[in-house]
Amino acid sequence: MKLIDFLCCKPGDKLKVKGEILHDAERFQIDLGLDSEDLALHFNPRFHDDADGAVLVCNSKTAGCWGDEKREIHNPLLRGSEVKIVLKLSEDVFEVELPDGQEMQFPNRADMNVITYIRVVGDFKLTSFKIC
């Protein structure tokens, strides 16, 4: 697990996450928020979801309670591949740019204007992380 809790992001910032999806990956996640109980964005690629197979899931969490999932059936991420995922923050929406150029949007339900908690965990080997 990689936990980055000393950085601060604000609207207009981009987070560039590079790494390798493990060969036997089931899922990984990138969380952005205030802490583990208050997440503005939970980005969770799954490679063997019981309902949809390979799927991208986004959600938010407020005071420990999950919101409604947004599911994208088209998951261009492949096990065993090296990827760059760009997360763009704006005041009302998060944009997740995937390696094939696909972009997924998720509303900033919590209206968080400052992100102080970033976590990357699961079947993903983080090699680079940059805020710009």
Automatic annotation (TrEMBL):
SMART domains: Gal-bind_lectin (SM00908), GLECT (SM00276). One of its GO terms (molecular function) is carbohydrate binding. PROSITE patterns: GALECTIN. It holds the Pfam family Gal-bind_lectin. It comes from Cyprinodon variegatus. This is Galectin. Keywords: Lectin. Gene3D superfamilies: 2.60.120.200. InterPro entries: ConA-like_dom_sf (IPR013320), Galectin-like (IPR044156), Galectin_CRD (IPR001079). Residues 1-132 form the Galectin domain.
